[in-house]
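Quick log. Single chain, no ligands specified.
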Amino acid sequence: MMSEEELLDGAARVLAGDHSASMVQIAAGIGTSRATLSRRYATREALLKAVAVRAIEVVDGCLAPLDLDRTADADAFDAAVEELVVALIPAAHLYGFTSRDATVLADPEFRAGVDRQDRRALAFLALGQRLGRLRADLPPYWIWYSLWGLLDAAAEGVRDGHLAPRQIGHLVLTSFLGGTRPPGRPPLTRPPADAPAETRQTPPEP
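-> predicted structure:
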C-alpha cells in the first residue's frame, strides 16, 4: 500500500506539471483510483492542504545547511550554500507550485511555515553578507527570492525537456552566486558536486 508521503509526493508531481489537474487526473498520475484517493482526501482542497503541509516538511528538511553558527567562516558558508541548493532542487521540482497556488496560499498553516522558513533563510543570508560572501547592497529577501526563482526555472526546464537533471545544480549555483557575489569575488570557491566534468575547475581567489 502506498504510504502517505509517497501519495503526497506523487500528487505534487502531477500538480507540478498541471496546476489545474483534477482528482481523477491526480489519481491516474500516481497510479491509483479516484475512489481510493477520495477515501483519504474527500475533496481536492483537502488534498492540496495536505500537499502544502508536506511541502513545508520537505523544505524544512532541506534547510539544515542554514543553521550555521554565527562564528562560521567564509568556507563554511560557501559549502552550506552549495549543500542548500543541491537539497532544494528536488523539493522545488515537486513543491515549487505551492508558492503560486491560490488554495495553498490561503492556508494559514502554510503561510506560517513559509514565514518561519523565510526568517531562517534571512538570518543565513545576513551571515553571508557579514562574511563578505554575498553583496551587502542587495536586500536579503531579494537574494532568497532570486534563489527560488532560479530553482523554479530549473524545474520547469527539466519538465519541458530543455535541461538535463544533472545540469541544473551547476546552473542554479553558478547563476545564483554570479549575481550575488560582491564585485571582485569569484562566483564559486569550488565546483558543485553535480557539475559536469569539463566545468570542474576551481576559479582562483583574487
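The chain has nine helices and no strands.
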